[in-house]
Write a structure and sequence with these properties.
The structure is a homotetramer. By secondary structure, the first copy, chain A, is α+β, with helices and mostly antiparallel strands. The first copy, chain A, has helices at residues 5-13, 16-21, 52-71, and strands spanning 24-29, 32-38, 75-84, 92-102, 106-117, 120-133, 143-144. In chain A, strands 1-2-4-5-6-3-7 form a seven-stranded antiparallel sheet.
């Protein structure tokens, strides 16, 4: 099996916004991806919890990596939906995504998001979305992640 | 009509993540909110477009402000869904959200997102979600934004 | 402008499930579609309101017709999301869908659903989804509506 | 453990629309529900596959039963999202829903939908949604299923 983690980490490192947020790729394999974001004050909202936008970023990007693992490198998120379940606090935010169904040009993926504190993970949000192969640039119909 | 923009801007300024992203509140009134994020390199992905996570942040936060304008200050995003339509580039990202229906404890809102370049706005994503009144802290079932 | 309503009605009449539900196509044009379902007891749930499944059918099918109006006849619903706002009762259920963005192979559409009673329409649900051009049958990755 | 299947089947039998579609409750327990709809011609679209509206009905209702199993009998679907993965044909449609997270007033659930043919089940759609406890009738903000 080819090593996907190295190339995956290089892609993540080439996304300035992922660098700004401090995202790390923990796992990346056929149909799966796991991102980790260490929680720091800059990522919070006014009540001291992690901002929902950080969680939606993590869902979006983990979904995209999972879909990209089966469709190829150049993919875009067409759409996704997220349900927030609990406020997020702790040491880090984990986003674990997996492909549910792979078609010819797109993959439907799910992502569970966990607040990790002292080694215990607690489900805090769950997402579902569609990742599409990128058409040639002039055809791009969706946001490139 | 009371001035809502001032208080709204103070809430936004109290969200460290919104400060990190450089978000500004352009409009805030009964059932409506508009956020603006000046586009800078730190907010991009590897192809030079604005990262989808920035767009989902803007949708999430604009939906929350719109819902909060009719439900009260302490609200949370329960869930939302976003469709990405086009890659985002230009001067700034605009997120315009409005309440579609207001219930007793929650509001359903929509948000259109535009890439603004030299004064022209282009629709690039659209979102729909549920904003809920925050219960007492111990009952919080959803992410606090 | 070519008459789209006639051909649209023939498609609707060729869907046995739409016939079972009594759906009618009121309007069908470039980027728009409106379905009407007269409310009868068979379409209700245990409390006397129209069943959510009837509403989701109407949203799904109106979205598909709207998308099909710009993409061509053979389209499928890839995905959609619906928020229920109020219980539905009255004379009929109306589903008004419109294209928000048209890409090369798919269209993102929205649909507002109304309960109509004695001529007054009341918003009762709202939906958003993706309609895709049907690939050749062997490639079909999504549900054909 | 109390028998939930009998009461669940009585609720399903009291929904005229579920009777019209021929839905059966196969399993119903703490946090789980499985519906089965035998496929017949009346449930199809123009290409001979099961209509997407039947699938969205099954998702909606299975999500509601799963949520109701932990929240109590009087619940409503607030919202859900569905991705269609494959055309549905065969002997029956199965909808298997489970609670992902239970809050005080609402539960987030997922539902996988399968086309069953000669004993083999094939994933054909997947859904995620929010089920809410029904407030007193005058407060009802969502569709009652």
């Amino acid at each position: 099996m080819p090593d996907m983690l190295g190339p995956g980490r290089r892609i993540l490192a080439s996304q300035p916004f992922s660098v700004l947020l401090g995202a790390e790729l923990l796992h990346f394999g056929e149909g799966k991806a796991e991102l980790r974001i260490p929680i720091r004050d800059e990522l919070k909202e006014q009540h001291g919890f992690v901002h929902g936008g950080v969680i939606s970023y993590a869902a979006d990007n983990a979904l995209t990596f999972a879909g990209g693992s089966v469709l190829g490198v150049d993919v875009v998120t067409s759409e996704f939906k997220i349900n927030y379940l609990r406020p997020v606090q702790g040491d880090s935010l984990l986003a674990r995504a997996a492909v549910v169904h792979r078609g010819r040009t797109q993959a439907v993926c799910r992502c569970d998001l966990f607040a990790s504190e002292q080694g215990a993970d607690r489900l805090c949000a769950t997402a579902q979305g569609t990742i599409a192969k990128l058409a040639t640039p002039s055809e791009g119909a969706s946001q490139t992640n």
